[in-house]
């Protein structure tokens, strides 16, 4: 099975210990959000504006 760039990015983020990502949902990131959803190890938090994604809320303690 061929590996997409989005899947490679998702796997790299997972290996780095990333638990959640904030981003603007849209056509350019659909591949990445799909790869993250299929992996199920990183939470995708969609935002409406880039400013919110760049400055996420205070860290949550889980």
TrEMBL record:
Keywords: Oxidoreductase, Pyruvate, Ubiquinone. Its EC number is 1.2.5.1. Residues 4-54 form the Thiamine pyrophosphate enzyme N-terminal TPP-binding domain. Pfam families: TPP_enzyme_N (PF02776). The keyword tRNA processing does not apply. InterPro entries: POXB-like, THDP-binding, Thiamin_PyroP_enz_TPP-bd_dom. The keyword Cell division does not apply. GO terms for molecular function: pyruvate dehydrogenase (quinone) activity; thiamine pyrophosphate binding. This is Pyruvate dehydrogenase [ubiquinone]. The gene is poxB_1.
